[in-house]
Amino acid sequence: MSTADTKLNHREAGVAYYLGEQQRARIKLLSRSWIWRLELPTWILIGIIYTGWFACVIYWQQLGLVLGSTLLILLSAWYMSLQHELIHGHPTRWRRFNQLLGTLPLAVWYPYGLYRDSHIQHHNDEDLTHPEKDPECYYYTAEQWQRLPPLFKSIVRISNTFIGRLILGPALDIIDTIRSAISAFITGDRPAITMWLVHFGLLGLLFHWMAGYGISAIFYILVISYPALSLTKVRSFFEHRAAENSAARSTLNEAAWPWRLLFLNLNYHLVHHDLPALPWYGLRQIYLESRVQYQHRSEQFVVNGYTEWFEAFVFTALEIEIHPFYDSENKALTESIRDTVIDSGDRRPESV
């Protein structure tokens, strides 16, 4: 492996990383097509998700418990994928309008603003998997791990199995979210308090409306929302790993089309981190056009579908506990890694 391949690629969150001038020109050409300019696939997606979700509630009695619940779980998980797309500037360039499209709490747990802010922070690839800087990180510093009670360490290890992540992962996320809400009210964080009050207000209205069709709040939370959140954990189970080269921290999962559609092609996660403004319907196309290059760039962090993860880790835990690349102070990457930069590729501080 070359020295360049083991060095960090430093760039700010949201900055596009092109494989070269040819790829940049190719994406620019695609962005001029009428389908991309109108964001037609995303508008269709919005229509399907909202129409389908509300129709399932309205026709709940006719659909029945099993079919109605299954459809609502899938649509709620799909909605969370849509919220991610909205965060990255689709289908419009108006941030507030996109937020309006994703504020309704169909998935219950996370206010759109909270998800947006933490996810944008996650896109600083220099800090990807950093236990103290990456809000979507599963790793701990040595100091953090030592402070954990033995019982919680066991819970973490169980949640690092595939089945454990689906069962316990949502609960751990929900606990962190509740802590965030409590902290906002205790510290008097007015913007955060406003966000939470709007979220709770909309959630209350939504639950009241659903009750008129025979769906109680408790039923929706336990039978619909929690499983929907579990479903998203399939995608994120081993989405990132600790690696010296930041490009090798994001996976490339060659999943089957139903998963790709549900997760809006985020299985090609390295491509998404390289080109965060690329719309969901362009991710697979761009990946396939440069498949060998992306697999090399990821240092072969490639998965042949989610079944591969299930078979390997259904009851076997991922080795995700103490992050391996932090000094004894647990505050920064080791100097030997931090001082290096990948020189290959083309980096530009712009949207695609």
Automatic annotation (TrEMBL):
**GO terms of biological process kind:** lipid metabolic process
The membrane spanning regions, by residue number, are 34-53, 59-80
Q: Does the keyword Glycoprotein apply?
A: no
Q: Can you tell which superkingdom this protein's organism belongs to?
A: Bacteria
Record's keyword terms, sorted: Membrane, Transmembrane, Transmembrane helix
Which parts of the sequence belong to the Fatty acid desaturase domain?
66-292
Q: What is this protein called?
A: Fatty acid desaturase
Species of origin: Yersinia rochesterensis
